[in-house]
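Hi U.,

Before I forget, here's the chain from the pilot set. I'm dumping it here mostly so it's searchable later in email.
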Amino acid sequence: FDFASSTPVKVQGGSLRTFSFPSPVVEAVQVSMRTEGRPLNANVDLWQGPDNTPQKMGVYIEDAKLTPFNAVIATPRGQNTIAIRNTAQMEFPLNAAIAPNTATANDIEELARNIEPVTIQGGALKTYSFAPSVSSVQVLLVTDGRPLNARLELLQG
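Structure:
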């Protein structure tokens, strides 16, 4: 997924932009957001069908040019809409690109089977350290069908 060639859309501060994927063939989408060196403060919602409660994700990054946001979100069963609300002030626009991802639910399940899972109970804190040479990490959050409420923080220094 190349951000520049995917025609990013500017989302002004305080505004909402939606992206629909009505095809049941699209089982996952990649969401990428960045700024021109300014803070990024946004809510990303996944709406599945007309009667479902949305899945919500809050994103805050101090410099989204230096550390852009990328996520692959599973969108099974068709008729999905991704909503991005820029909750920052008008002076802090963000650029968003969303595209169907080739990952399927089976691919994600296969990835989960091939790694050693770590169970983190509700309210618990788990930290990981990385060498300075690490440029990016991937985090896969999976539940057994129950609601997921998690907070991920990347601290530098």
